[in-house]
Amino acid sequence: MTLLRQHFRSQRTGLLIWLGANVAATLMVASLGNSVSQSQALPKLVEKLPANIQALFGLAPGLSAVDSFIQAKLGFWIILAFPIYGCLLAISAVTREVDRHTADFLFTLPIDRARLLVSRWAVMVADIAILGLGIWVALVAGLKGVGVTGSWSGYFWMIAQTWLLGVAVGSLALLASVWIDDYGAGTKYSLAGVGALFALDMGFRINPPPWWALVWNPFAHANSARSIMENRLLWGDAAALAVIAALALALAVHFFARKQIRA
Amino acid sequence: MTLLRHQVKSDRGGLISWAVLTGLTAWFMVYMFDIMVSSGILDYLSQLVESMPPAWRAVWGGNAGVLSLGGWARDFLYGIIGPLIFTIYVGTYVAGLVTRESDQHNLEFLLSLPVERVQVILTKWLSLLAGLATLQVVLATIVAVSVGKTALASLPGFVWANVNMFLMFTAVGSLLLLISLFIDDYPRGTAVSLGLALAMFFLNFVLQDSPGAAIRRVLPQYYFDTVKVMSGNAVPWGNLAVLAGATAVFLAGSLYIFSRKQIAN
After folding, report:
1. How many folded domains does chain B comprise?
2. In terms of residue numbers, what domain contains B189?
């Protein structure tokens, strides 16, 4: 618990910066809700589009104008922001300590390597959750402020599903970071990985490959429009993301226990 | 010159990775358009757009929006995916220029050499330009080769769009460089630099459908209008001038701040 508290405190400034920026951006999105809700052109257009094009733009027929707008703007953004934030937190867990030569000191303390890694992973999970919760509160308050009613619980599930995506991508970055001792390189590689996986998923939405070629990409398991539309967590995709995260964490713990730290 | 050569040499590996990522992503997105054509989705979409009232047809750029290969490249590669990759590149790269050197106590050594501070910061800035120019050339080459000259609405427009995008990211990078001079902790610098770059990208993405949003005018992204530049033959002199001016101001600010920066031991 002390480890958890300590790492959480060290990440507090970063969390506040990300939270502040995201809440401000969300309020800006919400402020446009009133003008968007008066136009019915987008929902009508969406209904006529072929399924592949709907998937590419992340659209879903049947959503109201406001919901379509929120998922197209905010949904698109958090699908990128949560994994990026997760990667930054994951790289801070191990690579940063090794790069700064503080890992040697850390291991002289009477703590288990596994416990250390899991506590840092838990901080990552908690920080992304706080970020998501802040965005949801800002979105609801912002839309209510301009007198617009949206799918409040649908937005919650959209954010919850994306939170799982952030955790899964962050866990993969944590696993990769066990072999990277340079913080700069770790950040660049993990973010390049996020960009590549995201672009690959966009392409595959047009022409979906067999399931086995899709299932390993965490981005394939986040769908903002469907989360709002079905007003629930997408259980199959959520389970896939949880398995990816758990597997990556287990492997990270395994390899971190054997990692040679240069003094 | 030696400083610049040294900086370029140390950036080489990372830059090659980013260039490969940019090239592969561009090629993949163009390839996906071919899939849309061969699967018949595009024909269906074309018929649908033709049957729409004029106002709706305008959403798709008349009949030449995302329905043409050139329009696809314009809206996706130059409108979303390309700028996103460049944003992440600039956000992470700039944090490594001064903040990292300061965090790792390399600046003291660097400044003990017979080089002026102005020279140090100019070298760092030029290496940023070199990296951005490399990625821009890679993106433009892959798009030009895979899309083909005839599919592009306007060849001069395509060239100017690349110049415009390069200048836009030069302005973003110069602003981040100026801000990074106030941060000596590398991880924090990375988070701030990347967070700011992404926030600007997102704000522009959110507000681009709201022409009345005055706040968008302060974003460098506002001065890169892909549709306008790539569809016409007119050179976007006004936008280029604003971006070049902003870059000059941020660079001058960086030179001023860095020449007075206290380097902690």
Report:
1. 1
2. 2-30+77-260
